[in-house]
């Protein structure tokens, strides 16, 4: 099914008020993930990967000694819990227990869990199968700059936090889709997940090209002072609510700068820290944003101005629909419901990538 999501026009054309920002415009593609059943031949978040049967599935080789198994859940348990929550939300009166199918699945999960614990937890240094996070085809996300003849990016992560930043470690794979003939049917899954927010819900995508401007923290002192000049906004005839008179820079950051949500390219969503440029460990070139993995598609309150036109009513109403938060379709949560930014080297995408929580 093809669906469309459209970002509402920004309340102000920022380059009319501040022509100085025009050279800083960057292209970005909002992915707009929404729950669905993507196939291996589609771009997706949390969906199945077009993975060659002859290629070993990636495993995290780091030690997971700090992981407390007593408070974790298997991927199957997380999926069952989500399915039950969605069904309960669909039942407007909140009635009903488990269906026979859910009860049978819960019993099977419990038996498997008992068998695993009887055998003892896996060693802390046991390699852990990584989980699919995103699959992006160049035909859908033309901002990608793949190496050679590659036309597909696959992103996976370890389902456990890693020191020193307490975030999942990530792995990137570039490949040519046409070269994948025999597809791996059943990828291995981890024993358990550190947090249910590390198991993305399968989502289809509705990519949308937009133009972004940098967060005010990425601007020089002079530009930041201009953003804070309320008289400049008024002189340009900008239709800005007078409640922002004392904080016009906040209006810029909330409504006009970098878009929230899952996206390719664009500008980083600073806020948790000041700007922290990343440099390639091979050639020392400053790295550029490749992918933003977001906990939310838009912020609550005034931030819902970024909610797609097709979902503005749901965004303003808040709450849940069929067990889903409209602004958190992937059920991913990184950091304290923050964003993970993946960076690559613009000179060579094959150089080691890096990531950062914001």
From TrEMBL:
<protein>
    <recommendedName>
        <fullName>DUF1963 domain-containing protein</fullName>
    </recommendedName>
</protein>
<dbReference type="InterPro" id="IPR035948">
    <property type="entry name" value="YwqG-like_sf"/>
</dbReference>
């Amino acid at each position: 099914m093809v669906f469309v999501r459209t970002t509402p026009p920004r309340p102000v054309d920022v380059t009319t008020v501040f022509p100085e920002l025009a050279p800083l415009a960057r292209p970005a593609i909002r992915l707009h993930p929404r729950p669905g059943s993507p196939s291996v031949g589609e771009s997706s978040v949390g969906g199945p990967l077009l993975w060659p049967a002859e290629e070993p599935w990636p495993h995290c080789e780091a030690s997971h000694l700090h992981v407390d198994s007593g408070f974790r859940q298997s991927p199957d348990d997380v999926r069952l819990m989500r399915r039950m929550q969605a069904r309960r939300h669909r039942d407007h009166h909140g009635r009903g227990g488990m269906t026979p199918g859910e009860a049978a699945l819960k019993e099977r999960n419990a038996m498997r869990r008992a068998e695993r614990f009887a055998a003892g937890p896996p060693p802390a240094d046991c390699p852990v199968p990584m989980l699919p996070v995103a699959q992006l085809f160049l035909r859908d996300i033309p901002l990608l700059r793949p190496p050679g003849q590659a036309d597909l990016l696959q992103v996976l992560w370890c389902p456990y936090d890693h020191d020193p930043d307490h975030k999942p470690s990530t792995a990137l794979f570039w490949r040519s889709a046409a070269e994948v003939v025999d597809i791996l049917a059943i990828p291995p899954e981890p024993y358990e997940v550190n947090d249910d927010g590390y198991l993305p819900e399968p989502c289809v995508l509705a990519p949308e090209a937009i133009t972004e401007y940098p967060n005010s923290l990425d601007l020089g002192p002079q530009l930041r002072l201009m953003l804070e000049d309320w008289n400049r906004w008024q002189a340009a005839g900008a239709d800005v609510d007078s409640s922002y008179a004392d904080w016009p820079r906040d209006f810029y950051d909330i409504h006009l700068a970098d878009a929230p949500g899952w996206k390719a390219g664009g500008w980083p969503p600073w806020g948790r820290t000041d700007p922290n440029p990343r440099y390639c460990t091979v050639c020392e070139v400053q790295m550029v944003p490749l992918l933003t993995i977001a906990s939310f598609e838009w912020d609550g309150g005034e931030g819902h101005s970024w909610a797609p036109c097709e979902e503005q009513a749901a965004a303003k109403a808040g709450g849940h629909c069929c067990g889903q938060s409209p602004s958190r379709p992937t059920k991913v949560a990184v950091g304290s419901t923050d964003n993970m930014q993946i960076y690559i080297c613009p000179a060579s995408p094959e150089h080691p990538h890096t990531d950062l929580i914001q």
